Structures are given as structure tokens and as C-alpha cells.
């Protein structure tokens, strides 16, 4: 029994990445399917990896959402989300991490952080987007990547959707009978990162989330600095924005309305 327990723990620790990343290589659709104008992105990271993505502008948009997606699939599986943001008047810049979609390489924690930095550089240099017009947004695993990036740059705001606190908490929650909390090499610690973020924060949790339960989002929110807004919507981890479609749009629209107004949008970076 003890050997079996130790063996299972060791196996999961050794092949940890297999339990974190679930990339899909096939890009099943493009923004053209929804009639959206877009530019193909080919972004090179500092370690020489070429990433693929899309820039989907809206004429005269005030903000662009730089989106960092979750741990499964690729950007082609988020087109309905990008379309919804465009309906709010937001342009969208979305990349696939290394190992996802048409992006080169293999995923890993340090690599995903490097991918986010490369996307930021491309958006704010080559495309010429003003940092104060870019909203960094991440969902699930991408929330941890987004929070890490937001520690390092000055943006319009940070939006975290269904975030988990960190990988040790996730390991303990999903495998409570194994000591994986102490064996996990990856951190993806959104709770720790937000302590050093001084941007307006929108945090959206899913009330019926069985993957990253709402109490984890609450831990992240409690650790974050003001100004911050938290919304809990009905639905699960992967369908809350569809299940609570109208409430989701209202939450975003209300928060966007506070950015850059001399209130929530103008908090100094310390």
C-alpha cells in the first residue's frame, strides 16, 4: 500500500507537465469564420521560439485585450469569446503559447511567462499600441500568466477569469490523498503575483467551478491591491461566460467604464 502510494506520487511528480498542459495543435477555425478582420501574428520570444496568434482590431476601439488562454486547446477554441469582446468595442490580441496551435516549442512555466512578455513587446512596439490602452486578461492557467506579466508592465488593467491560487493548491484539491503539494515543481502562483500588481483588477469567478473552485479566486482577490472588483457568475469553469452571458458582458462593460477616468484607471505603479 505504501509503495503504491509512493509510486503514484513519484509518477505524477515526474510527469507533472502531463497533468498541467493539454495543447491542441490543429487550428480548427479563424476569425474569418465570424466575419472578423484579423492579422496573423508571428512573434519571436527571447529564447528564439516563434509564436502564432491573431490581432483582431475594432475601429476606434479605446482598449485592446491581450488574452492569455487556459491550459487546453488553442486560440481557435476561443473565437466566441473574442467575438463577444469585440461586441463590447474591444480589440483583441491573442497568442498561442509555445506548443499550442501553430506555435513552436513545448510548454513549460518559464516558457509561458516568456511568451506573454513577447506578446506584450509585439503589441506595444511593432503594433504601436499604447500600454495604457492594453488590458491584460487571462483565464484559468492564463490568469497566473497574466498576473505575472502585470507585475512587470504598466497596462490599463488586469482581468482574471476563473483563476486558481497556485499549482500546489490545485494539486492538493484534486489529489488530496497524495503529497503533491510538496512535490510540485510548477507554481503558477497568481495569488503571489497579484500582491505586486498595482493596476485596476477585474476578477470573475464561476460559482459552480469544480476545476478551480471559487474559494481559490477569493484567495487571489484577497491578496490583490485596490482598486479591484470581483464578480461571481453562475456556471462552471468552462461555460460561465455562456451560461451567464448577459451578466458577463455587464461586468466587463461596467469595469471598462472605470478605466482611465481619474479613478480606478489612474492608480500609480509603485
TrEMBL record:
<dbReference type="InterPro" id="IPR029058">
    <property type="entry name" value="AB_hydrolase_fold"/>
</dbReference>
<protein>
    <recommendedName>
        <fullName>Serine aminopeptidase S33 domain-containing protein</fullName>
    </recommendedName>
</protein>
<dbReference type="Pfam" id="PF12146">
    <property type="entry name" value="Hydrolase_4"/>
</dbReference>
<feature type="domain" description="Serine aminopeptidase S33">
    <location>
        <begin position="61"/>
        <end position="175"/>
    </location>
</feature>
<dbReference type="InterPro" id="IPR022742">
    <property type="entry name" value="Hydrolase_4"/>
</dbReference>
Amino acid at each position: 500500500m505504501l509503495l503504491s502510494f509512493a509510486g503514484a506520487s513519484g509518477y505524477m511528480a515526474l510527469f507533472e507537465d502531463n497533468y498541467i498542459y493539454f495543447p491542441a495543435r490543429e487550428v480548427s477555425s479563424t476569425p474569418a469564420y465570424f466575419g472578423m478582420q484579423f492579422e496573423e501574428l508571428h512573434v519571436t520570444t527571447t529564447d528564439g521560439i516563434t509564436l502564432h496568434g491573431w490581432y483582431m482590431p475594432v475601429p476606434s476601439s479605446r482598449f485592446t485585450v491581450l488574452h492569455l488562454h487556459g491550459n487546453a486547446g488553442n486560440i481557435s477554441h476561443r473565437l466566441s469569446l473574442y467575438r463577444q469582446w469585440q461586441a463590447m468595442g474591444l480589440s483583441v490580441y491573442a497568442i498561442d503559447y509555445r506548443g499550442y496551435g501553430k506555435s513552436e516549442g513545448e510548454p513549460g512555466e518559464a516558457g509561458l511567462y516568456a511568451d506573454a512578455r513577447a506578446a506584450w513587446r509585439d503589441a506595444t512596439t511593432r503594433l504601436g499600441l499604447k500600454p495604457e490602452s492594453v488590458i491584460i486578461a487571462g483565464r484559468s492557467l492564463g490568469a497566473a500568466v497574466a498576473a505575472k506579466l502585470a507585475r512587470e508592465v504598466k497596462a490599463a488593467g488586469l482581468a482574471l477569469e476563473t483563476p486558481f491560487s497556485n499549482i500546489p493548491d490545485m494539486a492538493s484539491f484534486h489529489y488530496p490523498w497524495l503529497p503533491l503539494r510538496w512535490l510540485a515543481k510548477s507554481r503558477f502562483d497568481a495569488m503571489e503575483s497579484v500582491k505586486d500588481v498595482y493596476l485596476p483588477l477585474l476578477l470573475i469567478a464561476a460559482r459552480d467551478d469544480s476545476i478551480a473552485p471559487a474559494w481559490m479566486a477569493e484567495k487571489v482577490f484577497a491578496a490583490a491591491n485596490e482598486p479591484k472588483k470581483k464578480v461571481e457568475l453562475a456556471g462552471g469553469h468552462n461555460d460561465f461566460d455562456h451560461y451567464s452571458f448577459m451578466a458577463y458582458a455587464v461586468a466587463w462593460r461596467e469595469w471598462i467604464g472605470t478605466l482611465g477616468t481619474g479613478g480606478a484607471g489612474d492608480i500609480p505603479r509603485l
